Amino acid sequence: MKRYIIGVVSLIMIGVVVFPIVLFSAPWPRSARDFLARSAVSETGATNVVASIYLGYRLYDTLGETMVLLAALVGSVYLMTDHGKKKEHFPGAAHGSFSLPTTGENIHKQYKRVQRTEVLSLTVGKLSPVVLLFGWYVMFFGHQSPGGGFQGGVVVASGITFLLMGRRLPQEMGVLFQNTVPVQRIEVGALLAILLLIGSGLLRGQGFFSNPFVGVEMPMPVTYIVLFNIAIGIKVGAGLAILMILMLRGTVRDT
Amino acid sequence: MTVILLVAILGLSIYALICKDLLYGTIALSVVSVLTALLLYILHAPDVAITEAAVGAGVSTVIFVWVIRKTQRRDET
């Protein structure tokens, strides 16, 4: 009963906050819209104006978003790997449902324990190349079509999840997904690339977050946005891939 | 179209709140994400629609299902 009272009270409070916005009839602000419509494409070269905002005019916010994602990822990985502590049995947990069998065992036993069905492996095997290709497209063409680094990275991570679902035994996986170490290196490299791109304006005598590809001798401002999309996409995709490897395989690294 | 989508989103969200089987609630939330992506596409925000479809329907559903599998499926409150 108490829960329902709390729910009704919070609904009323949300209504009190939101209802004046519905009644509000002042005209929409136009100056930012007109400025972007006039000069966004010519200044940044990106046909997708959204990309020109979040990788051009508001790049600082994008950096903050990337850092928030990194912090969330670090926290999740810390919670999931419990860092050398003895493994406690969670009450009611399905013991070792996703955990990896040791390598000395019979292969039939291993297949039984990972609970893979033919339907699942066939479907994800056919689906994952398409999803990965779409993810790379969204990432590389974020300056022209809807999408960008974050979206493309998440779609690529979904494709990697399909790959991991299809082949869960370590013998079947490529060297990239045996443990989390290669993907971690990829993510660190992408973060370094992001930081270098942020500082790259310094080479041209401009400040941080400025586009170094503008100017008379290099009139290709869209290059900066494309590079940034790729770096952010690889970072997001690798970060989510680390989570998925940890979740679906249950081991940190094969030391 | 917009009204149908909004009513469906509201109904599925309420179902996800009250149903006792957490797996059903997760699937309902996933459908809510897909419908929200459709709504955002109708509202001419394809960037946000792609984000919503990829994050809401894809990654967060996988994470929820994994957590349900690691803990338990019934809501006991």
Question: Could you outline the blueprint of secondary structure elements for this entry?
Answer:
The complex is a heterodimer of chains A (255) and B (77).
Chain A: H1 2-23, H2 31-44, H3 49-57, H4 59-81, H5 107-114, H6 118-140, H7 149-166, H8 181-199, H9 222-249
Helix pairs in contact in A: 2-3, 3-4, 3-9, 4-9, 6-7, 7-9, 8-9
Chain B: H1 2-18, H2 22-42, H3 46-70
Helix pairs in contact in B: 1-2, 2-3
Content of β-strand of chain B: under 5%
Low-confidence regions of chain B: none
What's the gyration radius of chain B in Å?
13 Å
**Quick one: how many beta strands of chain B?**
0
Biggest interface reads: A-B, 24 and 16 residues
Estimate what percentage of residues of chain A fall within beta strands: under 5%
The largest pleated sheet of chain B is described as: none
Mean pLDDT of chain B: 90
Molecular shape of chain A: globular
What does this structure look like?
The complex is a heterodimer of chains A (about 260) and B (about 80). Chain A is mainly alpha-helical and about 260 residues long. Chain A has one domain. Chain A has nine helices and no strands. Chain A has helices at about 1-25, 30-45, 50-55, 60-80, 105-115, 120-140, 150-165, 180-200, 220-250. Chain B is mainly α. Helices cover about 80% and strands about 0% of the residues of chain B. Chain B is built from three helices and no strands. In chain B, helix 1 runs antiparallel to helix 2 (about 20-40) and helix 2 (about 20-40) packs antiparallel against helix 3. The longest helix of chain B is centred in the C-terminal third of the chain and has 25 residues, at about 45-70.
The gist of it:
The complex is a heterodimer of chains A (255) and B (77). Chain A has 255 residues and is an all-alpha fold.
Notable characteristics:
heterodimer, A: 255 residues, mainly alpha, B: 77 residues, 3 helices
